[in-house]
Structure formats: C-alpha cells, structure tokens
Amino acid sequence: MEQPEGFIVPGLERKVCKLRKSLYGLKQAPKQWYEKFDRSLLSNDLGEADVILGVKIRKTENGFSLCQSHYIEKILKKFGCHDEIPVRTPYDPSACLKKNKGDSVSQADYAKIIGSVMFLMNYTRPDIAYAVSRLSRYTHNPNKDHWDALRRLLRYLKGTMNLCLHFNKYPAVLEGFCDANWVTDNDEVSSTSGYVFTLGGGAISWKSAKQTCIARSTMESEFIALELAGQEAEWLRNLVGDVPLWGSSVPVSLHCDSQAAIGIAKNYAYNGKRDIYASDMVR
C-alpha cells in the first residue's frame, strides 16, 4: 500500500507499506470479509435464530411468525407516547394535510419518528405503509396538523404492537394485489400507488408511494399501479426462482380492481393514449 498522506517517512518516499491484515477500502477487502464470515458460520453452532436485525422469530405448529413488538414499545417510550390511548386506524382519511408554508414545529423530532416507523414498516408492518408514505412527505417542514397525524400513527401502533407476519407452506403461489387512488393530495396533482405480494401465507413485499407522473383519469392511476406491481412481480419471481425451497417456476397471480386498466394491459393493439403515457413513465 502506498504511504498515506501525513505518514510518509522522510527519505523513503518511494517505499510502500506491507499490510499485516486486511484494510477497509481495498479491492480485496470484500473477499477477505466473506472468507472470515464463512469460516465463522461453519465453525460456530449459533443455534436456532431468535432475533435477526431487530425482528423476533416465533415458531408455531404450522409455520413461523415475524414480529417487532419490542421495537414498537421502544419507540413509544422514546418519544413519550407509551401512555397514549390506542386508536383503530393508522391514518384519518378526513385529515386535510397540506404543506406547511410557515415555521416548522420540532422538525428534528418529527424526522426521527418518521425514520423509526419507516424501519418498522419496511420489515413487518405493511398496514402502516400508506400512513408512513403520506406523513414522510412533510418531514422537511412539519406543522401541528402533521404532528397530530403522526401521533395518531403511534397510538395505532400501541394498540397493534403484537401484530405479526405469519408464514406457512401454502399457498405456494406468488400472489400480488395492487390499487391506486386518484389525485387526493391537496397540494399536488399526484396519485398514490400501492401493492402487496404474498407467498406462503404471508406478505413478503409491499409499497405505497406517490406516483411520479400525472394520471389524467382513474384508469391511468390504476394502470400506473399495475405497471409498478408488475415490475415487482417480475423481480420477485426471479428471486424466488433462485431459492431451492420453491423451485425454478413459481406461479404468479396479480390482481387489480380496475377493469379498464386490465383491459388496456391485455390489449396489444395500438393505443395512442397508452403509448404517450408509457413514454411519460419512462422519462
């Protein structure tokens, strides 16, 4: 290795250092880490996993469950919501949230809570995906209304902290469900897409996100969601195909509640609106 700046030996500037162990940042570092990690796993019997990356694993008679109740309790205590009264829904659809044009209210704490619940949502709680996606749009400059909606989410988590994802052997079909709403944002003309995929009885992939292009009708907003879910279905099918447990060919079923969007997707004839819309999505 070349002598690092600030540690060059006078008179030996052209000399190099001999490494006695692997150093972070070198091209050999990933290989060295993999070999050390591989030796450790082969030589140590770590037993059955109980917690992995903050997710509890509970075995049952016909499968297993993934839960983060301990993490939710930690969030509630950290942000002073442990004594709040639980509610039955994570988000109030009648709430009229708009971008704050005034001074922000505790922006740093708001961002911390959003980051905490986003970690939870990504791992085991697809039921809060829409609420987290919506509230995270106001992280830069939240006001009192945004804080009230965020506290409602924490109150919902308190009442549902024991919810978990349960998996068994059936059905061995990759099944997806997608949906969209059309222009419900008060500040922007963007719709929201959402999908969830299940395999082995439990959800394995989900998402709720604002659409990146403008839908001019409910059909187009549904078609955007269908296209987004289709991309995820293709990726998941390739991923599951590499797992020996499921085999090389896993059936895929994708559901959409819009007959117009389904008809457009199945129609291979030229359609000017669809082609223009597809080019907008590519851009």
Automatic annotation (TrEMBL):
Domain of life: Eukaryota
Alphabetized InterPro entries for the sequence: DNA/RNA_pol_sf, RVT_2
Protein name: Retrovirus-related Pol polyprotein from transposon TNT 1-94
Organism whose genome encodes this protein: Sesamum radiatum (Black benniseed)
Residues in Reverse transcriptase Ty1/copia-type domain copies: 1-42
Pfam family, one: RVT_2
